[in-house]
Amino acid sequence: MTAGGPWVWGQCHADLNGNQTIDNDDLLILLADYGQSCEVAAWDDPVISEIHYNPSTQQGSDSDFEFVELMNPHPFAIDVGGWSLDDGIDATIPAGTTIEPHGFLLTANDTATYRAILGPFVGLVPWMGTSSLHNSGETIRLIRPDGTQADIVTYSDTGGWTNEADGAGGSLEWKGAGHDNALPESWIGSNALGGSPGADNSSWAD
Question: Taking the model in full, what pTM does it have?
């Protein structure tokens, strides 16, 4: 203890979550950004983790069931108030919105449909205007409040991207930590009708 002051802790560079211990949580934080360049990697960013761009006719209309999901891969909550999604869709996350550790936030054209399906405890943010996802592919950007880009995914139904999410019933699911979500090989078709909105991706149990 310093004279007349509080305890002063040394900062270990590998203690990424600041709990004074190098533990599994620090490893998970590192794995979430493994392989990204330092120009785009950020320890406290959520990631685009699921895209349902062409629901099957078994579900219903595309406009009712399209969604983009964000996941917090970290062991601490993230304040995403003022963040936005643009290019393919247009959505602004309200002030005060957080994503819990390893939790999810769903953005959708028709939040009423998903509120009825998922119940009251899943965060839902509506798309604005005439936003929709093209069935052949497009770009989705996650933007921080300062205008910088936190994440980007340009999906397609060709060029190495799975076609299992193109009207067959499933969504595009990110494979998880250690997989760069900008790459087509980091995505798989969901094995559940309609995907896994607001929950662990169905493929993670495989």
Answer: 0.79
